[in-house]
């Protein structure tokens, strides 16, 4: 059913909170995501031209690095990009088959790859570029929020979190219930002023991003600009330099 | 957006097909001479064959063609599903119309079914247009022009086919050719208005708002996640040089609209009606394929922002 379900009262809203202040852009989350999801029950995540000139493949998580701000006051923003499990997911409603759906009980957006006809319309409907086409199987693929880990009761409770979260060395990724105002992730969003991506498009993403903090201590550029040398010694050196570079 | 051959063929062929069926339906509804029966019936045949070819072409781009039947299930939310349902429902309506025409073209039933066939045909075109018009991340599609424009181009292209059929059956057809010329003029004007609209639009978002920074923060890419192209860049990051787009716009204006317009005017004055209406169909077909290619190539997708592309 590709109509978006109305969440039951008390339903959970599982999602990620990603800290852009502490993310170091190491790609570990993307690698562990690929690793987990290529070995999972849903089947491998394809790679094409693996050892060739144009390697390519399906990834659920992609890490970009940007520079923000103006000269002298700019900073690097490392930015992991994956499905945000939106509350208003156009990728779900455009699906003609019912393969793309949002779960009523926890808000996870999934693809039933046994039904998907591979028309790619859902990827056109997602402004975040979160869906990638599996050329080998002719179906669309996307982040599952590691549904096969978070509900796996054979794992110790502490390990029931998505692969990307468990692997992050900077503790920049957090997983939890964003419908519960008391949860760790909700409190983080509250304290740090977590934001939606592309709020102007109205998809109401579940995942939130914590913006980079402002520097607390004024910093000066580490390298002092070169000062022109002065005096007789400098003049002699310049002469020598000229003679040698002739 | 990447212009996929199968989708260009689908929308162009179904435009011709459903446009022609709409013309035939309305033609019969307004009361036709009994001599037109053969023309109407062969027109229905041409329309259904073209529509079927277009719908089959659309299945070519599916990753799992054998599951295509599943696309009829989600008509409550999906315009793609509605397009499929409308296309399938149009068959019995058009066949019923053909049957009533065969029985008695002058009967009220043929007239009513003519209107029904026209509505079903245009309804299918409307569903197709709404697939594009409903996609919020693409400003060149998600606007009030897309749906009316698709209907106008369908009526225009189907009109050129109708005039050709009329010329084949009766040698002339001044009234039809004049109407077809009018449709061509409307299509030409609609396209110019559409281009003006998309040229004046502002981007839907900025890179800063895409990565959660305040909207007007300057931001630029440092490192991309991968060195080679991926699905997102191939499908959504398609870019066309402005120079090429301008050239293709001129070709579209001339080939798709201006030439068929002039040829229809010729036919309306009963000057070489058969030759001019044949040429008009060919120009409209090639021109509309170019137009459809541009409709995709000029469309930009918000997700391309993440790769530093302009949207």
Structural commentary:
The complex is a heterodimer of chains A (246) and B (311). Chain A is α+β, with helices and mostly antiparallel strands and 246 residues long. Chain A has helices at 28-38, 90-93, 121-125, 147-150, 163-167, 184-192, 232-244, and strands at residues 14-19, 47-48, 56-57, 62-68, 75-81, 100-102, 109-111, 132-134, 139-141, 173-177, 208-210. Chain A has a single domain, classed as 2-Layer Sandwich (Alpha-Beta Plaits), CATH 3.30.70.20. Chain A contains 7 helices and 11 strands. A 3-stranded mixed beta sheet of chain A has the order 10-1-11. Chain A has a two-stranded antiparallel ribbon with strand order 2-3. Chain A has a two-stranded antiparallel ribbon with strand order 4-5. In chain A, strand 6 (100-102) and strand 7 (109-111) form a beta hairpin. The longest helix of chain A has 13 residues, at 232-244. The model of chain A has no long low-confidence stretch (mean pLDDT 92). With 311 residues, chain B is mainly α. Chain B has a single domain (5-60, 70-307), classed as Formate dehydrogenase/DMSO reductase fold (Up-down Bundle). In chain B, 68% of the residues lie in helices and 2% in strands. Chain B is built from 10 helices and 1 strand; from the N terminus they run αααααααβααα. Chain B has helices at residues 5-29, 37-59, 79-103, 108-133, 146-170, 174-200, 207-210, 231-236, 242-268, 273-297; one strand at residues 219-223. In chain B, helix 6 runs antiparallel to helix 9 and helix 9 (242-268) packs antiparallel against helix 10. The longest helix of chain B has 27 residues, at 174-200. Chain B is globular and about 70 Å long. Classes of the chains: A alpha+beta (246), B mainly alpha (311). Strand 4 (62-68) of chain A pairs antiparallel with strand 1 of chain B.
């Amino acid at each position: 059913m590709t109509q978006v379900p109305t969440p039951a009262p008390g339903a959970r809203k599982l999602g990620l909170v990603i800290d852009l202040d502490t993310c170091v852009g190491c790609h570990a989350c993307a690698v562990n995501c690929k690793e987990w999801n290529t070995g999972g029950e849903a089947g491998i995540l394809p790679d094409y031209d693996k050892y060739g000139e144009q390697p390519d493949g399906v990834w659920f998580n992609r890490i970009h690095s940007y520079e923000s701000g103006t000269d002298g006051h700019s900073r690097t923003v490392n930015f992991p990009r994956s499905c945000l499990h939106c509350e208003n997911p156009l990728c779900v409603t455009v699906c003609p088959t019912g393969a793309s759906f949002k779960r009523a009980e926890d808000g996870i957006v999934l693809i039933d790859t046994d039904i998907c006809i591979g028309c790619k319309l859902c990827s056109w409907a997602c402004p975040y570029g979160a869906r990638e086409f599996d050329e080998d199987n002719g179906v669309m693929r996307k982040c599952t929020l590691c549904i096969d880990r978070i509900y796996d009761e054979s794992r110790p409770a502490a390990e029931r979190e998505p692969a990307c979260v468990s692997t992050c060395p900077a503790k920049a990724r957090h997983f939890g219930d964003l419908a519960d105002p008391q949860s760790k992730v909700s409190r983080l969003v509250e304290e740090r002023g977590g934001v939606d991506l592309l709020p102007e498009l109205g998809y109401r993403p579940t995942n939130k991003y914590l913006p980079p903090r402002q520097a607390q201590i004024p910093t000066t550029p580490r390298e002092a600009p070169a000062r022109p040398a002065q005096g007789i010694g400098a003049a002699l050196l310049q002469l020598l330099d000229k003679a040698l570079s002739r | 957006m990447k212009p996929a051959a199968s989708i260009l063929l689908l929308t162009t062929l179904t435009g011709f097909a459903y446009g022609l069926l709409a013309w035939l339906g309305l033609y019969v509804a307004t009361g036709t001479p009994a001599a037109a029966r053969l023309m109407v019936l062969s027109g229905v045949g041409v329309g259904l064959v073209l529509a079927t070819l277009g719908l089959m072409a659309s299945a070519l781009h599916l990753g799992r063609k054998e599951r295509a039947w599943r696309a009829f299930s989600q008509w409550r939310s999906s315009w793609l599903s509605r397009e499929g349902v409308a296309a399938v429902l149009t068959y019995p309506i058009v066949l019923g119309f053909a049957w009533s025409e065969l029985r008695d073209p002058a009967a009220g039933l043929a007239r009513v079914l003519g209107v029904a066939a026209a509505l079903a045909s245009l309804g299918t075109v409307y569903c197709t247009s709404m697939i594009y018009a409903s996609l919020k991340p693409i400003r060149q599609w998600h606007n009030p022009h897309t749906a009316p424009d698709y209907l106008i181009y369908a009526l225009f292209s189907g009109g050129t086919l109708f005039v050709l059929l009329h010329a084949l059956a009766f040698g002339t057809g001044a009234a039809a050719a004049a109407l077809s010329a009018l449709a061509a003029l409307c299509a030409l004007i609609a396209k110019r208005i559409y281009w003006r609209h998309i040229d004046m639009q502002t981007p839907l978002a900025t890179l800063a708002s895409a990565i959660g920074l305040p909207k007007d923060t300057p931001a630029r890419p440092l490192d991309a996640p991968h060195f080679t192209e991926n699905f997102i860049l191939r499908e959504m990051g398609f870019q066309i040089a402005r120079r090429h787009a301008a050239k293709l716009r001129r070709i579209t204006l001339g080939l798709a609209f201006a030439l068929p317009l002039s040829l229809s005017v010729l036919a309306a004055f009963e000057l070489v009606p058969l030759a001019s209406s044949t040429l008009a169909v060919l120009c409209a077909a090639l021109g509309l394929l170019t137009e459809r290619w541009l409709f995709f190539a000029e469309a930009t997708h918000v997700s391309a922002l993440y790769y530093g592309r302009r949207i």
